[in-house]
Amino acid sequence: MTYPMQPPVGGDRHQVWTDCDGTVHEEPAPGVDAVHSPEHGAVGVTYGGKAPEDAVEALEEKVARTPYAHDDEPGPGPGGRDHAVGAGRAGHRGRADDPRVNRFLAAYAQGPWTPEPGAACTGGTNGTAGR
């Protein structure tokens, strides 16, 4: 499946979502799984392949502390920048220590734009199912 932007913010999807309860995945989730999680109010976070290790670790720590969030490593974030997606919206952020990352997580994890508020974020795929 192709999407107009990467990571995708919506579109065709599988019935199972990407596990997203503060989950740090070992590899990127397929777009058809990842686009389902924001419907549940999850924020997906990726980072570019050039992101420094300390920034990756800081981002993973933030995700692990955030219910309704997941990261996919490494993801299709542009360059070395972090990229967050939630409920049909995307936000580019400079680094994990940028305060806008916290604001994005707070605004979009179970935010008012959530199509299915309170839907499960556990029991989804681990990033490899559905391929």
TrEMBL record:
Instruction: Give the Basic and acidic residues compositional bias ranges.
Output: 11-28
Check the record and name the InterPro entries matching this protein: DUF3105
Taxonomic superkingdom: Bacteria
* Region of interest (Disordered), ranges: 1-48, 66-131
- The entry's protein name is DUF3105 domain-containing protein
What organism is listed for this UniProt entry?
Answer: Streptomyces tamarix
Upper classification of the source organism reads:
Bacteria, Bacillati, Actinomycetota, Actinomycetes, Kitasatosporales
